[in-house]
Amino acid sequence: MYQLYRVLILPVLLGNASAWLSFPKQQQTSILRFLENARKFGPVGSFRSIQDQDDVVSAAKRLSGGNPRPADLPLQGVHRLVYSGAPGASSGKLFGTVAGQVTQTFVNSTHFINEVEWGPLKIELLARRQRKNAKQLDVFFEETTIRVFGQPVSRKRLPGTSGGSWKYLWVGVVEEGPKRKLVRVMETPSLFVLEHILDDNEY
Ligand SMILES: *[C@@H]1O[C@H](CO)[C@@H](O)[C@H](O)[C@H]1NC(C)=O
After folding, report:
1. How confident is the model over 29-82, as pLDDT tens digits?
2. Which of UniProt's keywords are assigned here (predicted)?
3. What SS3 class is residue 107?
4. Cα separations (Å) of 98 from 40, 45, 76, 89?
5. What Å distances lie between residue 36 and 9, 32, 69, 194, CA to CA?
6. HSE on the CB side for 111, CA within 13 Å?
7. Which of 106, 109, 111 should be mutated for ligand 1, with most atoms under 8 A from CB?
8. For 1-24, what is each residue's pLDDT tens digit?
């Protein structure tokens, strides 16, 4: 019964997810190779040579066979940064060669939090996302919070009218070792690669 749910009913509920269940082995191999390489050069791409960064970007552009309508995908839970080509703090880079750990946590169907964590320090950016088309979302920044040992020490409301955009290059589910992961590869325009470990009942 569970198998039936997973193979027949779940894909219908999630609409686009059905394509993932018959994910060809060939594509798994190329996305896994890409992921491995991005991890090796990441998470802060700007610590690497221009050549290395360019290689990751061109490999990302060559990926094929992901979800055809990635912007319509429901997102939940915590997504960990694998690689960022961003020159600034959104890659986790704080000062010099010091970088924090970056995560993106989906609060609900409209909001998410970009977070940089470094020891007791946490910098959070609350943002709203909005579908632009099947492959693109617009992002609007709403609030920043700085926490030390979990306690907010500074909070600032932003106008919520500007931010950025996510242009998906590839989104799909991969199996890496025993784990199933949702992998998102996007341009903001800097390249971002994020992964989210899936529960058995997700997708
Ligand atoms: C989602 O969460 C944000 C931030 O907590 C909140 O402002 C917003 O109203 C919530 N939206 C929905 C649809 O629940």
Report:
1. 899 999 999 999 999 999 999 999 999 999 999 999 899 999 999 999 999 999
2. Signal
3. coil
4. 17, 13, 29, 11
5. 33, 6, 24, 12
6. 11
7. 111
8. 455 445 444 444 454 444 454 466
The tens digit of pLDDT for each residue in 110-156 reads 999 999 999 999 999 999 999 999 999 999 999 999 999 999 999 99
Alpha carbon 169 to chain centroid, angstroms:
11
Ligand 1 proximity of 107 Cβ (cutoff 6 Å): yes
Going from N- to C-terminal start, the domains of the chain cover 26-197
Residue with the smallest CA separation from ligand 1 atom 2 is 111
Pocket test for ligand 1, best of 75, 109, 110, 140 (most atoms within 8 A of CB): 110
Residues 6 or more apart whose Cβ sits within 8 Å of residue 9: none
CA distance 164 to 136: 11
CA distance 121 to 153: 10
